[in-house]
């Protein structure tokens, strides 16, 4: 499973028959520039090319006749004759029996056509972020604002995020994903039936459009602007009556706990680690300015096990690694750790080092390695130090279970250690955060969306380690979701470390997710417990002054 790419030369045949500067965006170069950039960055070869065909009149009639995302049931609009995405959604429901569909409309204009077609339909969650400028930008509609949330049974299933300032950047879009889109999508689509993405056209020129098709993430240390946060806050407020996930998070505008603020009401002091991540201080203002090729690694996912299990079922293109690091090198890394002296632990470490080197060299994209439970902490310590000394500039470690941060690991801003299933919620430093494992699925999702991902995207690692250590307490679907969400970072360079006695089913499900498959269902949705909400709010209150991606309220911006 991968990303599908649909393109046909006939789509470049349409040209304007009149001169109008405001209409110059609708030209063939809008498509060809995006395709050229995908080719230049090596991304086209990583997509699944699907052949295009003409739609039948019956298919077009699923939502109209006649009538891109502006066209309506009985009227063409905004260069759009047929509403492709709306037709696709209706087709998916009718032919494939999907019950819940998410449409993400990423376009400079509001897709009012899709909104009108589905505004009373709870089976389609429509999300549009668009340039609005308080109603002064086309299509000049009052219903393009945040308070248009659907009608009838569809209340809450229309989500508008209006940008009222020109020039929104990657950090603004990521903040919208983390604080608005993903909480709603997961609450509604705990068992998703399908997702359809709208057009990608966030700028009114060919060059930025082609950039946006290739990458959209913020530079390390960047922050959403005040106007973006104000729009996100308005959209959250409008949607809160219809979504439990937003109601829990917005109990109060500022996260509070007995120790999150001083008695005088001042914000908490800056945590150890400095006001700005040192690694981020030298980061470029925009990653779009950097030349970056994205060639496909020769191996997408590899599994390194000391004793392969015959019951382990892997996708055909996931390989079981046979190689190991040199014995002398492995022994040198193991020497400081008594738990790595045993032969089985040393063998497992050699395989992990070999796999990690393949990832750092660009030969392998992601991987899974196993280690004896007694050597899990030491193996993770070696993996962190090996990664930092062999090419990784910023390393994110998400440790679950009894895996404490090594006390002698440098606090230099190059590693961010997040421990889930810690004894208590604690921000021990800017780069060392611990939280208990939430007891409910809703609490787990809130922890991932409201803490782990904002910190991770603010940090921008180029290597991610996910370690499931002793007593991690994570079910397979939850572990798979965590791995899947972290694949968006570091170009998908994620290494999962498991205990050797983990079930083959866990290794198999992680391998499939890291290889690009969708994670399995988490089961029926549930809300976070009061204790989970309190822990999350406490940590956000402690960390927000230094981690700007945690902020979703404009008055918190320094």
Question: What can you see in these coordinates?
Answer:
This protein is α/β, with parallel strands linked by helices and 558 residues long. Helix content is 33%, strand content 14%. It has 16 helices and 15 strands. A 9-stranded mixed beta sheet has the order 8-7-9-15-14-10-11-13-12, with helices on both faces. The protein has a 4-stranded parallel beta sheet with strand order 5-4-3-6, with helices on both faces. A two-stranded parallel sheet has the order 1-2. About 9% of the residues have low confidence.
Layout: helices, strands, pairs:
Layout (H helix, E strand, L loop, with lengths): L3 E3 L22 H12 L7 E3 L6 H4 L23 H13 L4 E6 L5 H7 L5 E8 L26 E6 L6 H19 L5 E4 L8 H9 L11 H14 L4 H6 L28 H4 L17 E6 L14 E2 L6 H8 L8 H18 L3 E8 L4 H14 L5 E6 L14 E6 L5 E4 L2 E4 L5 H19 L3 E6 L7 H11 L7 E6 L4 H11 L15 H14 L15
Parallel strand pairs: 1-2, 3-4, 3-6, 4-5, 7-8, 7-9, 9-15, 10-11, 10-14, 11-13, 14-15
Antiparallel strand pairs: 12-13
Helix pairs in contact: 1-6, 5-7, 5-13, 10-11, 11-12, 13-14, 13-16, 14-15
Structural class: alpha/beta
- The DSSP helix count reads 16
DSSP E strands, number: 15
**Helical amount among residues, as a percent range?**
25-40%
The fraction of residues assigned to DSSP E strands is: 5-15%
């Amino acid at each position: 499973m991968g990303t599908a790419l649909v393109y046909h030369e006939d789509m470049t045949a349409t040209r304007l028959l009149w001169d109008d500067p405001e209409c110059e965006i609708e030209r063939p170069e809008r498509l060809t520039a995006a395709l050229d950039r995908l080719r230049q960055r090596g991304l086209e070869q990583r997509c699944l090319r699907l052949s295009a065909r003409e739609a039948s009149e019956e298919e077009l009639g699923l939502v109209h006749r006649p009538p891109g995302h502006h066209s309506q049931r009985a009227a063409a609009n905004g260069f759009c004759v047929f509403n492709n995405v709306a037709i696709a959604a209706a087709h998916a429901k009718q032919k494939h029996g999907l019950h819940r569909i998410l449409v993400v409309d990423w376009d400079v204009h509001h897709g009012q056509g899709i909104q009108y077609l589905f505004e009373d339909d709870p089976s389609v969650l429509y999300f549009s972020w668009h340039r609005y400028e308080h109603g002064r930008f086309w299509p000049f509609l009052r219903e393009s604002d945040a308070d248009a949330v659907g009608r009838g049974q569809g209340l809450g299933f229309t989500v508008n995020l209006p940008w009222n300032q020109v020039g929104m950047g990657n950090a603004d879009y990521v903040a919208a994903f983390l604080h608005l889109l993903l909480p709603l999508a997961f609450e509604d689509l705990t068992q998703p039936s399908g997702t359809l993405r709208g057009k990608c056209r966030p700028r009114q020129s060919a060059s930025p459009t082609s950039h946006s098709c290739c990458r959209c993430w913020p530079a390390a240390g960047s922050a959403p602007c005040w106007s973006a946060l104000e729009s996100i806050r308005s959209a959250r407020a409008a949607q809160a009556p219809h979504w439990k996930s937003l109601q829990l998070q917005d109990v109060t505008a500022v996260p509070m706990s007995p120790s999150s603020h001083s008695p005088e009401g001042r914000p908490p002091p800056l945590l150890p680690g400095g006001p700005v991540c040192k690694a981020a201080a030298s980061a470029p203002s925009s990653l779009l300015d950097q030349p970056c090729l994205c060639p496909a690694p020769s191996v997408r996912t590899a599994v390194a096990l000391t004793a392969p299990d015959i019951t382990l079922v892997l996708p055909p293109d996931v390989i079981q690694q046979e190689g190991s690091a040199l014995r002398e090198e492995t022994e040198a890394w193991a020497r400081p750790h008594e738990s790595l002296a045993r032969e089985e632990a040393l063998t497992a470490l050699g395989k992990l080092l070999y796999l990690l080197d393949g990832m750092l060299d660009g030969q392998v994209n992601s991987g899974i390695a196993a280690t004896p439970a007694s050597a899990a902490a030491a193996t993770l310590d070696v993996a962190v130090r090996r990664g930092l000394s062999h090419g990784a500039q910023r390393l994110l470690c998400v440790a679950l279970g009894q895996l404490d941060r090594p006390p002698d690991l440098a606090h230099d801003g190059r590693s961010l250690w997040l421990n889930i299933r810690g004894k208590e919620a604690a921000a021990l430093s800017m780069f060392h955060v611990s939280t208990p494992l939430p007891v409910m699925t809703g609490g787990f999702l809130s922890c991932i969306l409201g803490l782990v991902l904002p910190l991770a995207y603010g940090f921008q690692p180029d290597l991610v380690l996910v370690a499931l250590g002793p007593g991690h307490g994570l079910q397979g679907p939850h572990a798979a979701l965590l791995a899947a969400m972290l694949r968006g970072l570091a170009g998908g360079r994620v290494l999962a470390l498991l205990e050797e006695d983990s079930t083959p089913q866990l290794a198999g499900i992680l391998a499939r997710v890291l290889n690009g498959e969708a994670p399995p269902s988490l089961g029926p949705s549930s809300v976070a417990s009061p204790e989970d909400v309190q822990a999350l709010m406490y940590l956000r209150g402690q960390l927000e002054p230094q981690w700007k991606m945690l902020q979703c309220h404009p008055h918190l911006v320094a």
